[in-house]
Design goal:
By secondary structure, the chain is mainly α. The chain has one helix spanning about 45-65.
Length: about 70
């Protein structure tokens, strides 16, 4: 914990090294916002679909047993 006065959170302290930035300067546009990368949809594998269905049926089973 560092001793900072209220209202001065945006000023770097002496022990800040600047290595905790989320984005580098090259990744930020002129408006100060990071370029968003889009996620492309993929095809689900059989194994993943099986575990989703297993979870759905397991949850329904538990709900019906408790009722």
């Amino acid at each position: 914990m560092t001793d900072r006065s209220p209202g001065r959170e945006d000023e770097p302290s002496e022990d800040d090294e600047g290595g905790d930035w989320r984005f580098s300067v090259d990744e930020v546009g002129e408006d100060g916002k990071a370029d968003e990368q889009t996620l492309e949809p993929g095809s689900p594998s059989i194994e993943n679909a099986f575990f989703v269905l297993l979870g759905v049926f397991g949850t329904l089973f538990v709900l019906f047993v408790m009722a």
